[in-house]
Design brief:
By secondary structure, the protein is α+β, with helices and mostly antiparallel strands. Helix content is 30%, strand content 30%. This is Large ribosomal subunit protein bL9.
Amino acid sequence: MKIILTNEVSGLGAAGDVVEVKDGYARNYLVPRGFAIRWTKGGEKDVEQIRRARKIREIATIEQANEIKSQLEGLRVGLKVRAGEQGRLFGSVTPADIADAIKASGGPDVDKRRVEVGSPIKSLGAHQVAIRLHADVTATVDVDVAAA
């Protein structure tokens, strides 16, 4: 099935790319989650708009990505959340929470879609989070989760 990606999908492509995938993968995973839309002649017009939006958001060069990486890796991010007595969180820390905490700590503005949390953060303490700045550049940020 031919689809148009609306978000970046690891191993498949970036937003605005037209790709061919198995019918079930598109029908059961990509389209319902909003990662893609079905390709049509009318949808082809949306591709250019999606690409323009991606170009505005993306980091253009590796040098720019390395500069942002150096800012992020020198940053210590603190995050206050509600937690129980044993240090377990009520819920988990989301990529949006981390992106907001980075901004509040004086770091650069990071898109929440670039924050990659390996396993869900559900406990207090220090955690490491990867931020994919460019295809070749990934920054690691230390996040201190504390009780509010």
